[in-house]
Amino acid sequence: MKSYKIKYGFLNQPELRTVVICVILAIPTVYIISNSDVLIRSSIAVFFQNHNAVSFFYDKITPLLNFIFHGMPQFTVAVVILILGRYRFPELFAHGKIALISLCSSGLAVQAIKHIVGRGRPRVTETFIAVGPTLNGDYDSFPSGHTVLAFTIAVLMTHYFPNFRVPAYMYAALSAFHRVKTGSHFPSDVTAGAFVGVVIANIVLYYFRDNGKYEETTNKREELKPRKSRKSRKTESEKEAENGC
Predict the structure, then answer these.
(1) What are the structural domains of the chain?
(2) Which residue from 131, 109, 107 is spatially nearest to 119, judged by alpha carbons?
(3) How is 176-238 classified by DSSP, letter by letter?
(4) 214-245 pLDDT tens trace
């Protein structure tokens, strides 16, 4: 059978292919979901009203979920990995650097979009009303910053630990659901956040890995490993001579 290569070479790169697919699907998907924002939110509310045990359990773990999905723990872990790579485990340096840059890039991107669009949160309006550029973080809702970070982490986890793909995206999906459940965001907000997180993470991975930056960063850290002094290094013949004496 003949093998066919994609005409446009950049689409042969898995990260860029994912970015293109997300960009194509993002607008129609968010538009469709936005037309069902009220229905989805009301369905979630009715479900928890009809299941008291589930509602009670969820209320109990809500403080924990708020902490886990806040974003600061993820940034802290990335910084710790970076520091450990800098001073103790050089092989971790590149991973920490990629994680930190991905999280920072995602955070900057979502804040820029959020304040430019200026969509009101569910507690302000039940429809998609964009008032334009604002700097009010308590008002601006679109897209969800927590969801962006969660899906950024899911992409990174899948990249480094493919066997954890399902748990990683379950974590991201739960983060998105939690933001809707608590009334902080519309379903379309978290949908857009998922697309932004996946796109940013894949762009960073492509930049570092496919352009050789990953290897370059790793090699630089390897060069900084402490070397043994000339006095402490002995040739095999010297060791054999000592053992034979």
Answers:
(1) 18-222 (1.20.144)
(2) 131
(3) HHHHHHTTSS-HHHHHHHHHHHHHHHHHHHIIIIITSHHHHHHHHHHHTS----TTT---HHH
(4) 544 444 444 434 444 444 444 555 555 555 54
